[in-house]
Amino acid sequence: MHDFTNIIWQCMDGSQRHLTAGTDSARRYLKGFSPIVAFADPEQPEFAALETMCEPGERFYCSEWSGAVPDGWTLERDARMLVMVWTGAGAPPADQTLDAVPLRAEHVPQMCALAELTRPGPFDTRTIEFGEYFGVFEGERLVAMAGERMQDRHFREVSGVCTHPDQQGRGLARRLTELVVRRELARDQTPFLHVVATNARAITLYERMGFVTAREVPVRVISLTG
After folding, report:
1. Is pLDDT at 226 greater than 90 in this prediction?
2. 111-157, pLDDT tens digit by residue?
3. Which of 25, 33, 130, 174 has its CA 20 to 30 A from that of 61?
4. Of 189, 188, 195, residue with least CA distance to 212
5. Is 221 exposed, middle or buried (0-12, 13-18, 19+ CB in 10 A)?
6. Is 1 helix (H, G, I), strand (E, B) or coil?
């Protein structure tokens, strides 16, 4: 079993290195993909290595690191996050009633607007390029989505799970997550995900589906001071 220690760095420095920029000590996803940074050694983070790759005021998510904030950087949020991994017995059953469609480039404005409204985590205009995304529409309006972001070998992250507030209660988040999980399992991949540690409702949902907590880690939002 993968212990998921510093999993974001492992993704950035391994299977997804081509989607990042940085050094052997600090990396970020390319601009537009997802505003996330990671360090090879979170106990001794090389912030200086990031300064030439980040613009003043640009906000980044950073996990594993909980030390002092260095000069020239601003701490905007300090929280805890769970890394959960799929251990379910078999794939979730197919849902013939879920009217989900693959999301494409033309859907990006609506995807970004839904992410801005619901805050499922770091999301940007090129996040869709990480992997498959599926959405549910009411007419022409995107009301729910889920997809894929990080990857470390055969471990594949489920991400961007969100539902418009006026569509809550239909089980769309669960059903879309199960769709992504089914597709990953069919590729012999092991699904995992991140969820804020205080989001008890989502954690309970994921546990019922078949996810278990692998680790709890700090997660911060930081920005380079202008």
Report:
1. no
2. 999 999 999 999 999 999 999 999 999 999 999 999 999 999 999 99
3. 174
4. 195
5. middle
6. coil
Residues near 87 by beta carbon (within 8 Å), at least 6 away in sequence:
210, 211, 212
Residue pair 63/79 in contact (Cβ under 8 Å)? The answer is: no
Buried residues in 91-101 as b, exposed as e (16+ CB within 10 A) = ebeeeeebebe
Q: What is the mean pLDDT of the chain?
A: 97
Which region holds residue 121: left if phi is over 0, alpha if psi is between -120 and 50, else beta?
left
Closest residue by Cα to residue 196 from 46, 100, 83, 97: 83
Degrees to nearest 5, angle at CA 26 with 20 and 28:
30
Q: List Cα–Cα distances, 57 to 27, 29, 51, 200, 224, in angstroms.
A: 18, 16, 12, 31, 6
* Residue 201 identity (one-letter amino acid): R
pLDDT tens digit string along 81-123?
A: 999 999 999 999 999 999 999 999 999 999 999 999 999 999 9
State pTM to two decimals: 0.96
Structure tokens at 18: 């081509």
Place of tokens 């471990």: 155
